Amino acid sequence: MNMPKEIIFATTNSAKVGTLRRHAEQAGLDVIITQMSLDLPEIQANTATEVAKSKALQAHIQLKRAVLVDDSAFHIDALGGFPGPYIKYMLETVGIDGIMSFMEGKSNRDGYFLSSLVFIDSQGEMRVFEDAPYYGTITDKIDDFHSDIAWSALSKIFIPKGSDKVLARMTSEDHAHVDENHANSYVHFVHWLKSDAS
After folding, report:
1. Which terminus in the chain has less CB density within 10 A, N or C?
2. Torsions phi, psi of 15, nearest 5?
3. 97 assigned to active site
């Protein structure tokens, strides 16, 4: 496959698009990344990868062209790994205030993100790029700092391993430093694009 000159990223989350653009620029890739919001029903599944695969297939059918989809899960150790891939629904219903209420009295505040990128090319071939767990801890209180590069409200309560700041307060340079020791799905995808282009 020749590297596409444009990547259609089917997502409503502009921060995710910004993250991909940042990694592409750092890798020296000459590719246009275009955000496209699509109505993609989200299946009930046990992993972010299963959800991302389903959404990617739906997006490919709608667009009839190459498309990239992301889905993320957030696992909290003290809650037995919940909410996992149901984090979007949880944020839409109880919000981070509800998550913090679930964490009241919990001494174990460890948790981690898992993100999966699924790319389907113009011929319909699917490729999956998965994260290693992005470990960290949940704060005792919500930090209301606003960030333009944060993916979700979880950025106000999650401190990645290797950092002393919540995600919302981390700069692009902070993220790059933490990412050095993290097998990021976005990095995997960009490296694959770059190797395919060479």
Report:
1. C
2. -65, -35
3. no
Q: Which domain holds residue 15?
A: 6-197
- CA nearest neighbour of 110 among 87, 142, 78: 78
Q: pTM of the full predicted structure?
A: 0.87
pLDDT tens digits for range 79-106? 999 999 999 899 999 999 999 999 999 9
Residue 78 is part of a domain; what is its CATH number?
3.90.950.10
pLDDT in tens, 103-139: 999 999 999 999 999 999 988 999 999 988 999 999 9
The identity of residue 39, as a single letter, is D
CA diameter of the chain: 53
pLDDT at 5: 82
Please report whether residue 161 resides in a domain.
yes
d(CA 48, CA 185): 12
Q: Pick the catalytic residue: 30, 39, 70, 71?
A: 71
